[in-house]
Every structure is written in C-alpha cells, then in structure tokens.
C-alpha cells in the first residue's frame, strides 16, 4: 500500500525472525519483509516449520502471518532492501576463525559487510533509509558502514542514517522480552538526522511504558559487548565459588541469597552452572578482548580473558568429578540430561555440555544424551563445530526426548540443562530402569529438589555447590 512504512530485516535467524514476527504482530500498520540468503531457512518460515524452538513464538507468528498478514519471508535480499524504509541488519557476527590475535578474537564481519554491500547495490538512492545495526558489532562499525557505502554512493549522508540498536533478546524468554523490553537503546549521532531516526524508530513500538535510551553510537556499540561481559562475569564468579562451597560445607544457594540481597549487587544472574554457553557471551568477550589487544591495552585484555579461562576450568572440574566417580568406563553407562545451552531453547551453540559429552565419550563410557528439544542433527553439528570428533565412536547414543531409552542401564543421570521437567520427573520409576553398583544423580544446575529425588533410592544426589 502507498504510504505504508516498510521495515526490512536482513537475516532470518534468532534475532531477525523473532524481532520481526513480534513487530509484525503488534503493529498491523507496518509491513515487514524478512530476507535471508539461506533458502532452507526461508522455506521453513514460510511453511511454519520453525527452525528452532522458542516458547510462545507460534502464537505471534500466527497473528502476523494469518491475521495481520503483514510479514513476508523471502530470499530476495535486493527487493527487501529496495522496498524498506528502515532496515534491521541481523546477520551473524561470529569470532573470526583465522584471527591472528593472541588473546581475543576479532568479530568476523564478512556477513555483515556483505549485507552492507548489498545495500549499496540495491538501495534506491531516492528513498531515505535508516540502517539499523542489530547484529552485535565492534565499536566503530557505524563509521565503517559509511565508508563501505561510500564506495558506491556519492553522498551517503543524504540517503542513509546509520544507527546502532543492540538486541537484548534472551533465547527462551525472547517473546516476553520483546513484548516488554527493559529498555530500548538507540545509538545515533547527535545531529538532526540522528534525532529524526530516533523518533522514527520509537514510533515503530507500541510500548508506551518502555524507556527509550538515546546514546552516542560508539557508546551503545561498546555497552552491548560490555553487558554480555558483565553477565558472563556474574555467573562465572558464582561458578568459581561452587568448589569452595563443596569443599567447606557451604551452599551456593545460601551464598547466592546473601550476595543477591546486597542491593549493590542484586539477585539476578547469580545461578551456578557447568559453565556458560550460548552464541553470544564467549564471542562478545573475545571481541572485547580483541579490541583491547589491538589498542595495546594488555591488562584489560587479560582481565576479560581470565573469565573465559575460568569458564573452561568449570567444565574441566565437572568432567573430572564424574570420571573420578566411575573408574570403569567400558562397563559404565552415563546419561546426560540436557544438551541445549540453557532451558527453553533448542539452541546448542557453544553449550558447555558438549565438552562434557566429548570427554566422557573419549574416555570410553557408554553415553546417552537426552534433551526435550534438541535434534540429533544439532547435536552432531554442535560437536563438530566445537571441534569434538566423535565420528568414529560408537559408544554413545542420542536419545532425543525418550526418557526410558536415555536412562535404561545407566549408572548416573547428569543434569546439564535446567529444563523444568527434569525437576518434575518420576524418579521412582526412572531408577528402576537404571543399572550398576551405584545409581547417582548429578545436578550441575543446582536446582533440583534433592530430598524428593533422594527418596527414589539414589546412592547419591549431588547438587553443584553443595
Ligand atoms: P543466526 O545465525 O541465527 O542468524 C543470522 C542469519 O543471517 C542466518 O540465517 C544467515 O543465513 C543470515 N545471513 C548471513 N549473511 C546474510 C546476508 N548477507 N544477507 C542476508 N542474510 C544473511 O544469528 P542470531 O543468533 O540471530 O544473531 C545475529 C546477530 O545478533 C549476531 O551479531 C548476534 O551476536 C546478535 N545477537 C544475538 C542474540 C541471540 O540471542 N541470538 C541476542 C543479541 C544479539
């Protein structure tokens, strides 16, 4: 329709698709075009076969697609660019594989830059566009975009306004977070163009309660990396304390309660775990380290590097703990409960459990892997991505959501992902399927009801940090 404001999204992954679906569902007057270079990804969205599991997303997909009818998914990137008034750039920015940095890893901007080049090729220069960096990018990217566009376009300022709008969606909670964001941050210039872009973007949202923060572009680019570093730092600090709690008879929950009740610290994000995973934390910390490193700021680079080392140490500690308890790998079956990097998502990217699975498989245990949402294909793909070669191995079994298969003949259940259902299972029944001299349960998310589960007759119920 003439006059309809069109929002394009480049990238139909977690960020691009979920933010677009919610926007389309909430704003029937907008038109949303989501494009991606991957035909398979687009086919899935068009056919309503979601490429990943995200709670409540179906409902909003249905509103956008069947009620508002204001969203399209396409591989025609050029057309999406041409038509849009505002373009969300939501492509992946992974760590560079061949980065020559010592401590950090530069963000690989290949996909992002390809998207910008596409914009300079297809962008109708008559139509002013707002380009929104939604991907997490290194500081200074907004300037680089300008020069990339400059290759093709004489006067970029006249056609494009570039803003940074970091995404805070948390997988598993993405829908709720997007419906009720804590704040929406827009990094832009302080001139009239910047002010105008800020108002236009604000107008895309129906949330009247929401705090809109207008920052300088480098501030928001930097703060996005920093926030992920801070979040990782909080959970890693707790993880470092789990050993001491176990050793000295403390409880990580009590430490958490006391720490979290200090108003200077606050209660959120203090949950102990087998190590953080997910596609963002490690990559953004590596990117931050790289920036410090390339600025010659060694102490800062080492400071953030220590966080990654500590995260690895937690994974090693947990693996060793299991191995030391079962000295006869060949005759022992172990069950991993959970492979997703956290609950309520099928995302396995950089899940800490991959390390543990690999260690156990290579040690010779018979390993059974259960997860309610992860597919066998994702399991294999993730093991490969993390460099764990299990191709030749025959001593493991991916059991999907089949509990009976996963626990039968097993000497231990090892909970690595905090799915609610693992705390609600009928362990009285499951334990009858298990086998071995002892039957243990390990809760590496430290959230199960130990007394309840102990009643089923486990030899030992271990809760991380207790
Ligand atoms: P993703 O891998 O799920 O999706 C990226 C998509 O972009 C892929 O489908 C890919 O095919 C597509 N793509 C790549 N190059 C393209 C191009 N030139 N044109 C069109 N499509 C292209 O990644 P994601 O998890 O959605 O993350 C995207 C960005 O958002 C990253 O920078 C990430 O750091 C950031 N981010 C992610 C999250 C999260 O929870 N996943 C949260 C905040 C920020």
TrEMBL record:
<dbReference type="InterPro" id="IPR008927">
    <property type="entry name" value="6-PGluconate_DH-like_C_sf"/>
</dbReference>
<feature type="binding site">
    <location>
        <position position="136"/>
    </location>
    <ligand>
        <name>NAD(+)</name>
    </ligand>
</feature>
<dbReference type="InterPro" id="IPR028357">
    <property type="entry name" value="UDPglc_DH_bac"/>
</dbReference>
<feature type="binding site">
    <location>
        <position position="224"/>
    </location>
    <ligand>
        <name>substrate</name>
    </ligand>
</feature>
<dbReference type="InterPro" id="IPR014026">
    <property type="entry name" value="UDP-Glc/GDP-Man_DH_dimer"/>
</dbReference>
<feature type="domain" description="UDP-glucose/GDP-mannose dehydrogenase C-terminal">
    <location>
        <begin position="335"/>
        <end position="450"/>
    </location>
</feature>
<dbReference type="Pfam" id="PF00984">
    <property type="entry name" value="UDPG_MGDP_dh"/>
</dbReference>
<keyword id="KW-0812">Transmembrane</keyword>
<comment type="similarity">
    <text>Belongs to the UDP-glucose/GDP-mannose dehydrogenase family.</text>
</comment>
<dbReference type="Pfam" id="PF03720">
    <property type="entry name" value="UDPG_MGDP_dh_C"/>
</dbReference>
<dbReference type="InterPro" id="IPR036291">
    <property type="entry name" value="NAD(P)-bd_dom_sf"/>
</dbReference>
<feature type="binding site">
    <location>
        <position position="171"/>
    </location>
    <ligand>
        <name>NAD(+)</name>
    </ligand>
</feature>
<dbReference type="InterPro" id="IPR014027">
    <property type="entry name" value="UDP-Glc/GDP-Man_DH_C"/>
</dbReference>
<feature type="binding site">
    <location>
        <position position="277"/>
    </location>
    <ligand>
        <name>substrate</name>
    </ligand>
</feature>
<dbReference type="GO" id="GO:0006024">
    <property type="term" value="P:glycosaminoglycan biosynthetic process"/>
</dbReference>
<feature type="binding site">
    <location>
        <position position="93"/>
    </location>
    <ligand>
        <name>NAD(+)</name>
    </ligand>
</feature>
<feature type="binding site">
    <location>
        <position position="342"/>
    </location>
    <ligand>
        <name>substrate</name>
    </ligand>
</feature>
<dbReference type="GO" id="GO:0003979">
    <property type="term" value="F:UDP-glucose 6-dehydrogenase activity"/>
</dbReference>
<dbReference type="GO" id="GO:0006065">
    <property type="term" value="P:UDP-glucuronate biosynthetic process"/>
</dbReference>
<dbReference type="GO" id="GO:0005634">
    <property type="term" value="C:nucleus"/>
</dbReference>
<dbReference type="InterPro" id="IPR017476">
    <property type="entry name" value="UDP-Glc/GDP-Man"/>
</dbReference>
<protein>
    <recommendedName>
        <fullName>UDP-glucose 6-dehydrogenase</fullName>
        <ecNumber>1.1.1.22</ecNumber>
    </recommendedName>
</protein>
<feature type="binding site">
    <location>
        <position position="283"/>
    </location>
    <ligand>
        <name>NAD(+)</name>
    </ligand>
</feature>
<dbReference type="GO" id="GO:0051287">
    <property type="term" value="F:NAD binding"/>
</dbReference>
<dbReference type="InterPro" id="IPR028356">
    <property type="entry name" value="UDPglc_DH_euk"/>
</dbReference>
<comment type="pathway">
    <text>Nucleotide-sugar biosynthesis; UDP-alpha-D-glucuronate biosynthesis; UDP-alpha-D-glucuronate from UDP-alpha-D-glucose: step 1/1.</text>
</comment>
<dbReference type="Pfam" id="PF03721">
    <property type="entry name" value="UDPG_MGDP_dh_N"/>
</dbReference>
<keyword id="KW-0520">NAD</keyword>
<keyword id="KW-1133">Transmembrane helix</keyword>
<feature type="binding site">
    <location>
        <position position="349"/>
    </location>
    <ligand>
        <name>NAD(+)</name>
    </ligand>
</feature>
<dbReference type="InterPro" id="IPR036220">
    <property type="entry name" value="UDP-Glc/GDP-Man_DH_C_sf"/>
</dbReference>
<keyword id="KW-0472">Membrane</keyword>
<feature type="binding site">
    <location>
        <begin position="168"/>
        <end position="171"/>
    </location>
    <ligand>
        <name>substrate</name>
    </ligand>
</feature>
<feature type="binding site">
    <location>
        <position position="36"/>
    </location>
    <ligand>
        <name>NAD(+)</name>
    </ligand>
</feature>
<dbReference type="GO" id="GO:0000271">
    <property type="term" value="P:polysaccharide biosynthetic process"/>
</dbReference>
<dbReference type="InterPro" id="IPR001732">
    <property type="entry name" value="UDP-Glc/GDP-Man_DH_N"/>
</dbReference>
<feature type="active site" description="Nucleophile">
    <location>
        <position position="280"/>
    </location>
</feature>
<feature type="transmembrane region" description="Helical">
    <location>
        <begin position="4"/>
        <end position="25"/>
    </location>
</feature>
<keyword id="KW-0560">Oxidoreductase</keyword>
């Amino acid at each position: 329709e003439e006059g309809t404001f069109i929002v394009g999204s480049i990238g139909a992954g977690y960020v691009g698709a979920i933010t677009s679906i919610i926007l389309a569902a909430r704003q029937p007057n907008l038109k949303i075009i989501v494009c991606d270079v991957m035909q398979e990804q687009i086919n899935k969205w068009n056919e309503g076969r979601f490429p990943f599991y995200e709670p409540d997303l179906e409902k909003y997909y249905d509103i956008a697609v069947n009620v508002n009818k204001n969203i399209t998914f396409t591989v025609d990137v050029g057309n999406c660019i041409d038509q849009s008034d505002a373009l969300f750039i939501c492509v992946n920015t992974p760590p560079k594989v061949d980065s020559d940095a010592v401590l950090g890893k530069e963000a690989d901007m290949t996909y992002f830059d390809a998207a910008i080049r596409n914009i300079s090729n297809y962008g109708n220069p008559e139509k002013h566009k707002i380009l929104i960096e939604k991907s997490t990018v290194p500081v200074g990217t907004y300037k680089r975009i300008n020069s990339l566009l400059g290759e093709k376009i004489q006067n970029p300022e006249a056609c494009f306004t570039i803003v940074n709008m970091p995404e805070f969606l948390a997988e598993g909670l993405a829908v709720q977070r997007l419906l009720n964001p804590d704040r929406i941050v827009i990094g832009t210039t302080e001139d009239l163009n910047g002010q105008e872009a800020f108002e236009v973007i604000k107008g895309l949202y129906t949330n009247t309660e929401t705090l809109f923060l207008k920052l300088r572009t480098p501030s928001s680019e930097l703060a996005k990396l920093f926030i992920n570093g801070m979040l990782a730092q909080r959970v890693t600090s707790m993880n470092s304390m789990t050993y001491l709690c176990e050793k000295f008879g403390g409880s990580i929950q009590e430490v958490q309660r006391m720490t979290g009740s200090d108003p200077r610290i606050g209660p959120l994000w203090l949950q102990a775990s087998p190590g953080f995973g997910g596609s963002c934390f490690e990559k953004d910390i590596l990117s931050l380290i790289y920036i410090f490193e390339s600025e010659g700021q060694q102490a800062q680079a080492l400071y953030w590097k220590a966080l990654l080392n500590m995260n690895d140490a937690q994974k090693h500690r947990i693996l060793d703990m299991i191995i030391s308890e079962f000295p006869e790998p060949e005759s022992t079956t172990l069950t991993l409960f959970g492979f997703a990097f956290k609950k309520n998502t099928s995302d396995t990217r950089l899940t800490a459990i991959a390390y543990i699975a690999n260690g156990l498989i290579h040690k010779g245990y018979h390993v059974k892997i259960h997860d309610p949402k992860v597919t066998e294909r994702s399991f294999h793909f993730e093991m490969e991505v993390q460099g764990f070669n299990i191709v030749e191995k025959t001593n493991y079994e991916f059991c999907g959501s089949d509990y009976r298969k996963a626990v039968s003949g097993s000497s231990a259940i090892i909970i690595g992902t905090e799915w609610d259902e693992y705390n609600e299972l009928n362990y009285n029944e499951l334990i009858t399927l298990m086998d071995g001299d002892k039957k243990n349960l390990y809760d590496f998310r430290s959230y199960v009801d130990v007394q309840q589960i102990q009643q089923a007759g486990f030899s030992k119920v271990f809760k991380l940090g207790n």
